[in-house]
Design goal:
It contains three helices and four strands; from the N terminus they run βαβαβαβ. It is of the alpha/beta class. The mean pLDDT is about 90.
Length: about 110
């Protein structure tokens, strides 16, 4: 399952508080249904990385064997590609992937 998160506050502390108050109850309810979950965040600067990664890792530990991952990006193509890849990677859980939407380029 994919859950789009946001918009959240620009300040990382406020964004984390908003996530915990508004989104976390919904996330826990979804995980009680024993489904894998990928959170999709809007891009944010490096100051948001820590709290987002900590949330995803804690949720993955608390709800195993369900897999919980997150991606952040503005490109819908990149989000779709990443979520499709995560669906096919059964060992991946507790990961936060920041996407640039530019692709890896041509293999030389």
């Amino acid at each position: 399952m994919i859950l789009r998160v946001g918009p959240l506050a620009g300040n990382p502390l406020d964004a984390a508080a908003q996530f915990h108050a508004e989104v976390l109850p919904q996330v826990r309810e979804l995980l009680r249904e024993q489904e894998d979950l990928t959170l999709v965040f809007a891009p944010a600067d490096h100051e948001h990385h820590g709290w987002r990664l900590a949330v995803v890792q804690a949720l993955a530990r608390d709800h195993a064997p369900c897999r919980v991952n997150a991606v952040a990006g503005v490109s819908e193509d990149a989000v779709v590609a990443a979520t499709d890849w995560l669906t096919l990677a059964p060992g991946m859980t507790g990961q936060y992937l920041r996407l640039d939407g530019q692709g890896a380029g041509t293999v030389l």
